[in-house]
Design goal:
Layout lengths: L2 E5 L8 H16 L3 E5 L12 E4 L8 H12 L3 E2 L2 H7 L2 H10 L7 E4 L6 H11 L3 E4 L9 E4 L2 H11 L6 E5 L5 E8 L2 E9 L8 E4 L2 E4 L1 E4 L7 H14 L3 E8 L3 E8 L14 H10 L2
Parallel strand pairs: 1-2, 1-3, 3-4
Antiparallel strand pairs: 5-8, 6-7, 6-8, 9-10, 9-14, 10-13, 11-12, 14-15
Helix pairs in contact: 5-6
C-alpha cells in the first residue's frame, strides 16, 4: 500500500467546496488501494515518509508550499506541483518566455522596466498593442494586480505602482471575451475542460467591484464539445511549462491564445463536472506510473 500525502493549510479548509474536493481526492486514492494523510505545515517533516505528495494549498516560491514541494523533490518522491513549475507559473515573465520559446500562441506581450515608463514610450506601446491594453504585475495570481488601461496617463499610473513591487511590468494586448477556456493538463495529457464565464461587471474571472468580490461561473464542458484547437493549444502550453498539473487559460478570439498557465489549478469549482475520474488520474500519475 502506497502513502499519498496531501499538503493543505487552514485556508484550504476554509470553504466547504475545497473540503469536499479534498475528500473526493482522498476517497479516490483509498478506492485505488492507497492510504492518504493530510499534511499541514506544522507536520511538514512527514513529507519524506510519503510515497507521493499532492499540494492543495496556494503555491508561491515565498511561502511554505514551495518548501513542501522542494522537500518532496529532494527526497525523490513524485510531487504535484513540482518546484520548477511553481517557480515558472508564479512569474509571468518566466511563464510567457517559456510559452514563446515553445511557439505557443499568446497575446502580443511586452516586458517593461522603469526606463520604459515615460510618455513618449508609453504612447508607442499603446499604438503597437492597441487600446485598451492590460498591465500585469508578474507575481500576480487570482486576477490581482491585473488592470485594463485606456490611456497613457492610466498606463503610467498603474505601471509605476506595479514597479514598486517588481522590476518588470507585463503589457499585453487586450482580447475581448465573455468567457475563458480552462484546459486541465496532467503530465502532458488533456485532463478536463471548462469555461469560466466572466462576470458582466469586469473583464477578469475574479474582481472587487464596489467593495464586493465577484467570481466567474464555471461550466464544465464534455470532451466531445471541446474544439480541437483549444484542446491542442492547452496541452501544448502545459508541455511548455513542465510535466505537472496545470490549468491553462485560453481566450478564443479569431485565433485562440493562452493568457495564463496556472500550477496547482483549482478543482473545487466544478471544473471536473464532466470528468468523474480526474482524481483517480492524478493519483495514478503520482503513485502508479
Amino acid at each position: 500500500m502506497s502513502r499519498l500525502g496531501i499538503f493543505v493549510d487552514r485556508r484550504t479548509l476554509s470553504s466547504s467546496d475545497q473540503l469536499t474536493s479534498l475528500i473526493r481526492c482522498r476517497d479516490a486514492a483509498e478506492e485505488m488501494g492507497h492510504s492518504v494523510e493530510f499534511i499541514f505545515p506544522v507536520d511538514i517533516r512527514k513529507i519524506p515518509q510519503m510515497d507521493a505528495l499532492f499540494i492543495r494549498a496556494r503555491t508561491d516560491p515565498m511561502n511554505i508550499t514551495y518548501v513542501a514541494s522542494r522537500m518532496a523533490a529532494f527526497a525523490g518522491i513524485p510531487v504535484i506541483d513540482d518546484p520548477e513549475s511553481i517557480q515558472v507559473c508564479s512569474d509571468k515573465v518566466n511563464m510567457y518566455m517559456h510559452l514563446a520559446r515553445a511557439g505557443v500562441a499568446i497575446p502580443r506581450t511586452l516586458f517593461l522596466s522603469k526606463e520604459d515608463i515615460h510618455p513618449s514610450r508609453v504612447r508607442d506601446i499603446m499604438d503597437d498593442l492597441g487600446t485598451p491594453l492590460v498591465l500585469k504585475e508578474p507575481s500576480t495570481s487570482f486576477s490581482l494586480r491585473v488592470e485594463r488601461v485606456e490611456d497613457p496617463a492610466a498606463f503610467i499610473r498603474v505601471a509605476r505602482r506595479y514597479l514598486k513591487m517588481s522590476d518588470w511590468v507585463v503589457a499585453q494586448e487586450y482580447v475581448q471575451s465573455t468567457y475563458d477556456w480552462r484546459i486541465g493538463v496532467l503530465r502532458g495529457r488533456f485532463l478536463y475542460a471548462c469555461k469560466y464565464i466572466i462576470p458582466s461587471q469586469t473583464f477578469k474571472i475574479q474582481d472587487s467591484v464596489n467593495g464586493h468580490v465577484v467570481y466567474c461561473a464555471v461550466e464544465s464542458v464534455p470532451p466531445d464539445a471541446v474544439p480541437a484547437p483549444i484542446r491542442d493549444l492547452g496541452v501544448a502550453a502545459g508541455k511548455a511549462i513542465g510535466d505537472g498539473l496545470y490549468g491553462v487559460d485560453i481566450k478564443d478570439g479569431k485565433e485562440p491564445k493562452v493568457i495564463e498557465v496556472n500550477d496547482n489549478p483549482s478543482l473545487e469549482g466544478g471544473e471536473d463536472g464532466s470528468y468523474p475520474h480526474v482524481y483517480r488520474e492524478i493519483v495514478h500519475a503520482l503513485l502508479e506510473t
